[in-house]
Amino acid sequence: MLLIELLNPKTLSQKIYLIGYLLFVLFILFNTILPWKGRDFPNQASILYSEGTINYNYQQDGRSKRLLLILDNVNNTKKNQVFGCSYSAYSTPSTSVCISKKYIEDYIGKKAIFGWYYQTDFFGFHNPIPQLVSINVDGKYIKSYENTKKNFLKMNIGRSFISLINLIISFLIFYKFIYPLDSIKK
Q1: What are the Cα distances from residue 74, in Å, to 6, 62, 77, 112, 173?
Q2: pLDDT tens, 111-120?
Q3: From CA 49, how far away is CA 184, in angstroms rounded?
Q4: pTM for the full predicted model
Q5: Which of 45, 49, 77, 158 has its CA 20 to 30 A from that of 114?
Q6: Rounded distance, CA 112 to CA 89, Å?
Q7: Alpha-carbon distance 118 to 92, whole Å?
Q8: Measuring CA to CA, which residue among 49, 61, 48 is closest to residue 94?
């Protein structure tokens, strides 16, 4: 009954409200599904490894600074490599921070092995930054594949849960307050 009433708008403004709401729902769904699909996480056998010296730098992003994790002298080539941790084809400065400075400070300047992969492209998005999976210093993992994968899965489940809550709340707001405006005016 409720669905039939919603899908059978009586006035032009109700049709416009319905179209707007459906577009909003599509946005929420795409916002949930697309990053999930562009968030492939490789199996452990697919991880690439580079050896070098741990370093960091800051990049200014508007009003805030973000910590960039860098591996210097990668595989004895005198080249540096910046690593990210967005684990998505779509990367933003806030999602690409790998580790807090306080956790990495004691290891700056030490030799390390970084486990990483390139994120697969998805829906026209490309993330050229290697995605850091593990950091091994002197045989000790500061960041392990298993913990990274566990956090990755928690992030995806949390994102889906928040999207579901947004859809439920938006439906209630739409159905109770926005959609019936025309019937109130009559």
Answers
A1: 60, 30, 6, 10, 54
A2: 999 999 888 7
A3: 65
A4: 0.67
A5: 158
A6: 26
A7: 16
A8: 61
